[in-house]
Fold this protein.
Amino acid sequence: MRRMWIYLSSALCALVFTGVYQVEGMEVFTSSELEAVNGTEIRLKCTFKSNRPLSEERTSVSWSFMPLGKTKEEPFFHYQGHAYLPPGGLFKDHVVWSGDVMKGDGSITLQDVQFSFNGTYSCQVLNPPDIQGFAGEIKLRVVQKVSFSEIGILAIAVGGSIGVILLILIIYIVVRVFRRREEDMTIETEDHRSKDQVL
């Protein structure tokens, strides 16, 4: 009985550790936030790494959407061998497969983005026996016009400051060059006068 318990414990530990390895084997990467202008298109990038060989038949990518203010996700796109586009609903005629599972890319493109597309998008990848524990999530914000991020504003401010400093430096160099030429011309004129007086 004791020997049997040891065998069962060993088998259970092996299964648990195998399961942990499989979950950790699949890694999914997405941007945390994206911004899109109403009426344009945007690529929702989702890349992944697996410890197992990738296969068009076995590897699958699923996308789901959770609108702002909701708590339930709605699946709307699936890829396994070929793209299963949404037959109806919010994303009908708005989704295009733009990934390549053999290169670890499960991206999609949303066309003619609408304000109703505001929300969180989840990308889940399965490559049995590797499975993914957590889906990659992207928060999409649809706006009327592109707004500058804090980093963009900072970059503009720094770039503007550098531009002003360069302009001042160029003006200073030009003024120095002209002054030196004037001084050289004055010296030459005085030399000519001195020679004329001597003659």
In short: The mean pLDDT is 82. The chain has two domains: 25-143, 148-199. The helical segments are 2-25, 150-198.
